[in-house]
Amino acid sequence: MSVSSVTEGIDQIQFEHVRVLVLKDTPAGKTTLVDTGFDEDGDELVEVLEREYGGVDRVIITHGDHGHHGGLPSVMEAFDPELVASANESKLHEAIDYEPDVTFTDGDVLDGNIRVIEVPGHTKATSALLLEDRGILISGDALDGADRAGLPAGYLLPPPALFNDDHEAAEINLYDLLQYDFETLLVFHGSHVFEDPKGKLDDFLVEREWDPRPE
């Protein structure tokens, strides 16, 4: 496990198979945790959050995969934070014993000027989070760093088909991200992309066998 700065105001806590993100002073005066890793990461996550940040005020869960909500019971028991999750992610609601304090759907804006963009396909309601005032997009597993698949770092791919509920939808729905402006794209698997992530995503989608955008 390691803790490092990703960009100003955002840290990552890296576990063996997944990372979580910590948004400092978001919203103002509060600390937000995005996802919680696997259940076996929970105790260590709590220790790090206590040591590095004095706790956490809010947890946002991006989707229902176990590696993104498994540590939630440990975090909830330790800090009793506000829990924020998709209203439509049935996989998550079936897996956790907590009722979210705040639920969101596509297009909602959370405290801290975080816009929710649902990208169905990986799961029913996988949600990316756009920090609109900073041009930072958190993928929520709608995208991985390409080096997860053994390709060069600095590029993007959808998660492997093996991990997607509907792989075709997971690719087609990525076009929705191109409606938004972002200069940095943060992922939970593989390397983050800091140079022209929107352009690289557009290039990837154009080279697919289909392109649903109008001429």
DSSP, total strands: 14
CATH level 3 topology: Metallo-beta-lactamase, Chain A
* Rounded Rg: 16 Å
CATH H-level name... which superfamily?
Ribonuclease Z/Hydroxyacylglutathione hydrolase-like
**How many alpha or pi helices?**
6
Structural class of the secondary structure composition?
alpha/beta
Helix content: 10-25%
List the helices and strands in order.
EEEEHEHHEHEEEEEEEHEH
CATH architecture: 4-Layer Sandwich
**Strand content bin:** 15-25%
Largest sheet: 7 strands, mixed
Q: How many domain modules?
A: 1
- Low-confidence stretches at least 5 residues in length (pLDDT < 50)? none
Report strand order across the widest sheet. Answer: 1-2-3-4-5-6-7
CATH class: Alpha Beta
Q: What characteristic shape results from the CA principal axes?
A: globular
Our measurement of the CA-to-CA distance between the termini, rounded to an integer number of angstroms, reads: 47 Å
Instruction: Report the average pLDDT across residues.
Output: 95
Domain Metallo-beta-lactamase: 17-192
InterPro entries: Metallo-B-lactamas (IPR001279), RibonucZ/Hydroxyglut_hydro (IPR036866), Sec-metab_biosynth-thioest (IPR050662)
Pfam family, one: Lactamase_B
GO molecular function: hydrolase activity
Structure, explained:
Helix content is 21%, strand content 25%. By secondary structure, the chain is of the alpha/beta class. The chain has one domain (2-207): Ribonuclease Z/Hydroxyacylglutathione hydrolase-like (Metallo-beta-lactamase, Chain A). The strands form three sheets. The chain has a seven-stranded mixed β-sheet, with no helix packed on it. Strands 8-9-10-11-14 form a five-stranded mixed β-sheet, with no helix packed on it. Helix 1 (42-53) packs across helix 3 (72-79). The longest helix is centred in the N-terminal third of the chain and has 12 residues, at 42-53. It is globular and about 50 Å long. The model has no long low-confidence stretch (mean pLDDT 95).
